[in-house]
């Protein structure tokens, strides 16, 4: 290590330099790249091929009223420490910067080595250093050994003043070498998970703080020096921080490390880091499941007891598994569960040996003067597959004011959270309790009273096995100290799931914002609706949606699986609906056209969802924006009603309506509501009637390109229905493939839904029953006379009103539920 090269200025210099540069593995070219040998008279070449320029001949402007340049008397430990500049008065370097510096940030390395010198006792130095006015080092006195301090920050102007101030007139400052280089894009971003997770980080985003590197570890491998690092960093081995070395072993990988597209890059950490790791040493008993095989690998890093937060980056790369999905492990920071059941194979690339990193910010240092990092096998691992690994680790101190807050500042959603927690507890205690929780006595009485009415499908809260389990998984996947069941999803998870809101993942856009497809770490496909930040209307809808959807779960309503409101984001996370909006299966797309049976089943599903909405929850909910683009289809064409942003909770049951400003979608809007501004559940029935016409006729509800009498689907279709000739205008692809009686039933029901006055319209329950009936007529016809349209007109059981046949109706519904309802857990059947 003692050799260094002092290259004399010569015409060959550029050639030598470029040769050296070519040898170095660094592909990243920083826009700003200052390398200063302070106090040097000529350029100094580093082992990694880079060249330091004398500080006086660099483009950084040195302002030093009284300074001394010194050279090491004996060979220095590295060319970096060959020379020094000492400042006896406040002094500074001014670095001109590219504009990208403010965006991507800068890496600053300051090198100090108080080598023995006859003219100045460098060990006696005591000084402050600041960058752009922000303090980096205070009352600093470098120790005898060479020392490098590294910082990351985003400058707020196009030049940076690096200032050195002696602590007293008799004191002085010094510096051996300076590296100032632009960081690659997104080296550090604001996507991290707070620990403990009950805290959140507020105030300036993390990337606006100054980070000081404390530890950078190549776990299970040798030191990685600047020549083998993409950003000329140093990575030290982990041995001296390891708690029980004998219980661990290091592994090295000789094949190629596969950096994922659009994910972790070699600049995050080089393959020298990802290619080595430490895993559990289970010795010869590798196939036993004895308790002694169940332990953590722990590292302990001393840190100063200060009020700073710490940024911790874990580098992982599964170089030990033989197959995907073998390895599950837990990650702990200071005894907190930071990541439970981490499954590296489920990360974006789905390959082994693919690098992956996770960032945490430790909010609450436990006053013990150290940070403990552990990885240990997950309980769910197979006994002989139990293992855990870590490839690299970085710990940085967050300088400046770091603000943390307890979650309960989020007053808005407390009710929601309580509802969820209560709901989940109730679920665990038993579904009956759950039903009672969600349906207060009064409501039950109301329903008993209502059961005089024709329909009594049990409007029970149906939590499907699936959605419940997902909820649990999701909350487990997110760091949690105690098992509080929240729907809150860390922003980082969402960025991960959507690949940083990759435009390729965009599946839709609307008034509220954009919708992206994503995949959670556990493999669940999700739809991520990202609201336009700062929109007041958006905020209202966002809150309504959470409020409504957290109260109710039903097989035919989309499930909200989480939300995120970190950093002014308004993000809703739903189950992903593979087949998208119903509308796209009716017209205007290349989707194959749906059969009459499929259409009826979709309408039945949607009606069931709306019926549940109207009657199933304590307050009754009016959707207010029923339309074909708000009915989504999953991979089995099961219909789910979506978009509750406009919905209204709490119809006053005495009045039966709520007064509101008119909202909804043109073409679907209930004319009575429009006139009176009084909203009832019959407004949804009207809109649903329009959807039924859309389904039948496969055309938009408003089509300006048509002759004027045809523009409005509802008006036009009703003219034909009144003449009992609705079949003339149905979707051509249905012609001859629908049973006549089924169609007749359907048309009559649509007509009732579109009645002028709400009071004349059927309830959603009636609609549901009539649709069921229309489906039965169709099925029967198909079975008796395939594709026939000549069924006799005598068995028209209950064409006008389903009243008086509630038992039959009920049975029909139940039967249908059982046969169709694959994932539905029907509570009272
Ligand atoms: C240099 O300064 C340090 C700190 O003040 C002191 O401990 C040390 O004895 C000094 N060395 C010499 C050679 O004076
Ligand atoms: C830049 O930041 C420093 C300290 O962080 C502050 O004193 C200075 O006013 C800022 N400059 C601008 C232009 O915002
Ligand atoms: C150095 O930093 C300390 C602590 O931040 C401060 O109290 C002191 O005034 C600073 N000294 C100079 C000369 O800037
Ligand atoms: C850099 O990597 C090469 C290839 O693995 C290795 O031979 C060399 O020793 C490494 N250099 C340092 C300084 O770690
Ligand atoms: C483990 O196996 C090795 C060789 O297979 C053997 O030398 C060693 O004694 C064994 N250790 C124990 C604790 O059984
Ligand atoms: C370990 O034991 C399990 C069953 O106990 C067996 O399925 C598995 O193949 C064994 N693995 C090894 C490596 O022997
Ligand atoms: C770190 O782990 C060690 C060993 O498990 C333990 O003794 C120590 O108290 C822990 N420290 C912290 C800060 O958790
Ligand atoms: C690993 O450490 C965490 C945190 O200290 C602890 O909760 C957990 O029980 C440990 N696991 C094992 C297997 O010892
Ligand atoms: C840090 O944790 C301790 C207990 O572990 C707690 O008493 C203290 O309030 C926490 N500090 C903050 C800032 O929350």
Automatic annotation (TrEMBL):
Transmembrane among keywords: yes
Chain segments annotated as transmembrane: 412-439
Localization (cell): Membrane
Binding sites annotated in the UniProt record for ATP: 529
Mode of membrane association: Single-pass membrane protein
Ranges annotated as biased composition (Low complexity): 788-800
Region (Disordered): 788-829
Coiled coil: none
GO molecular function, one term: protein serine/threonine kinase activity
Annotated signal sequence range: 1-27
Biased composition (Polar residues): 801-813
Chief subcellular location: membrane
Keywords: ATP-binding, Glycoprotein, Kinase, Membrane, Nucleotide-binding, Serine/threonine-protein kinase, Signal, Transferase, Transmembrane, Transmembrane helix
Domain called Protein kinase: residue spans: 501-774
GO CC annotation: membrane
Protein name from the UniProt record: Protein kinase domain-containing protein
């Amino acid at each position: 290590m003692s050799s260094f090269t002092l290259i004399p200025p010569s015409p060959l210099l550029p050639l030598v330099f470029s040769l050296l540069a070519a040898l170095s593995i660094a592909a990243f070219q920083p826009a700003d790249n200052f390398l200063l040998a302070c106090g040097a008279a000529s350029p100094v070449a580093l082992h990694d091929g880079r060249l330091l320029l004398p500080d006086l001949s660099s483009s950084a402007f040195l302002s030093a009223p009284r300074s001394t340049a010194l050279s090491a008397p004996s060979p220095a430990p590295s060319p970096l420490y060959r020379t020094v500049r000492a400042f006896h008065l406040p002094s500074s370097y001014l670095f001109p910067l590219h504009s990208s510096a403010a965006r991507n940030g800068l890496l600053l390395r300051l090198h100090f080595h108080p080598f023995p010198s006859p003219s100045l006792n460098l060990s006696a130095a005591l000084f402050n250093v600041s960058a752009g006015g922000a303090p980096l080092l205070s009352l600093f006195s470098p120790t005898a050994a060479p020392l490098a301090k590294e910082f990351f920050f985003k400058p707020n102007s196009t030049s940076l003043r690096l200032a050195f101030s002696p602590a007293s007139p008799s004191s002085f400052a010094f510096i051996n070498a300076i590296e100032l280089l632009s960081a690659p894009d997104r080296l550090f971003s604001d996507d991290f998970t707070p620990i403990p997770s009950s805290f959140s980080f507020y105030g300036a985003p993390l990337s606006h703080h100054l980070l000081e590197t404390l530890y950078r570890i190549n776990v299970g491998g040798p030191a990685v020096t600047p020549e083998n690092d993409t950003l000329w960093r140093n990575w030290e081995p982990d041995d001296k921080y390891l708690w029980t070395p004998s219980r661990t072993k290091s592994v090295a990988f000789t094949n190629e490390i596969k950096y994922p597209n659009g994910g972790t890059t070699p600049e995050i950490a080089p393959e020298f880091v990802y290619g080595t790791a430490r895993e559990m040493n289970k010795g010869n008993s590798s196939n036993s499941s004895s308790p002694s095989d169940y332990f953590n690998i722990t590292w302990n890093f001393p840190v100063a007891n200060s009020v700073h937060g710490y940024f911790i980056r874990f580098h992982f790369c599964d170089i030990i598994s033989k197959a995907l999905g073998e390895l599950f492990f837990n990650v702990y920071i200071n005894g907190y569960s930071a990541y439970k059941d981490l499954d590296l194979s489920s990360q974006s690339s789905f390959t082994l040996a693919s690098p992956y990193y996770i960032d945490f910010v430790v909010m609450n240092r436990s006053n013990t003067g150290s940070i403990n990092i552990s990885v240990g096998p997950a309980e769910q691992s197979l006994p002989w597959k139990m293992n855990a690994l870590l490839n690299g680790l970085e710990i940085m101190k967050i300088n400046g004011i770091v603000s943390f807050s307890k979650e309960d500042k989020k007053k808005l959603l407390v009710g929601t959270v309580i509802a969820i927690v209560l709901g989940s507890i109730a679920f665990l205690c038993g579904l009956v309790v759950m039903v009672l929780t969600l349906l207060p006595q009064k409501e039950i009485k109301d329903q008993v009273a209502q059961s005089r009415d024709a329909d009594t499908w049990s409007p029970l809260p149906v939590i499907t096995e699936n959605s419940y389990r997902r909820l649990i998984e999701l909350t487990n996947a997110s760091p949690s100290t105690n098992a509080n069941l929240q729907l809150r999803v860390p922003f980082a998870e969402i960025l991960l799931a959507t690949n940083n809101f990759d435009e390729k993942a965009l599946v839709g856009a609307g008034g509220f914002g954009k919708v992206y497809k994503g995949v959670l770490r556990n493999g669940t496909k999700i739809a991520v609706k990202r609201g336009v930040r700062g929109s007041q209307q958006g905020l209202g809808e966002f809150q309504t949606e959470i409020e409504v959807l957290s109260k109710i779960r039903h097989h035919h309503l989309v499930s909200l699986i989480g939300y995120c409101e970190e950093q002014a984001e308004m993000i809703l996370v739903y189950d992903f609906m593979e087949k998208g909006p119903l509308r796209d299966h009716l017209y205007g797309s290349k989707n194959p056209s749906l059969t009459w049976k499929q259409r009826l089943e979709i309408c039945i599903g949607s009606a069931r969802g709306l019926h549940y909405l109207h009657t199933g929850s304590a307050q009754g909910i009016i959707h207010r924006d029923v339309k074909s683009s708000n009915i989504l289809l999953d991979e089995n064409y099961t219909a789910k009603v979506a978009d509750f942003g406009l919905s209204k909770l709490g119809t006053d049951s005495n009045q039966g309506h709520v007064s509101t400003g008119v909202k909804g979608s043109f073409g679907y809007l209930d004319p009575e509501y429009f006139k009176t501004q009084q909203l009832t559940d019959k407004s949804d029935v009207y809109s649903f009637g329009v959807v039924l016409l859309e389904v039948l006729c496969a055309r938009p509800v408003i089509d300006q390109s048509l002759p004027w009498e045809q523009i409005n689907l509802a008006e036009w279709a009703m003219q034909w229905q009144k003449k009992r000739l609705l079949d003339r205008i149905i979707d051509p692809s249905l012609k001859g493939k629908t049973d006549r009686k089924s169609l007749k039933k359907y048309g009559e029901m649509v007509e009732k839904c579109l009645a002028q006055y709400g009071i004349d319209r059927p309830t959603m329950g009636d609609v549901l029953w009539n649709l069921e009936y229309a489906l039965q007529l169709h099925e029967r016809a198909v079975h008796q006379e395939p594709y026939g349209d000549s069924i006799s007109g005598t068995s028209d059981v209950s064409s006008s009103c389903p009243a008086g046949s509630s038992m039959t109706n009920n049975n029909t519904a139940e039967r249908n539920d059982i046969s169709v309802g694959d994932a539905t857990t029907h509570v009272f059947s």
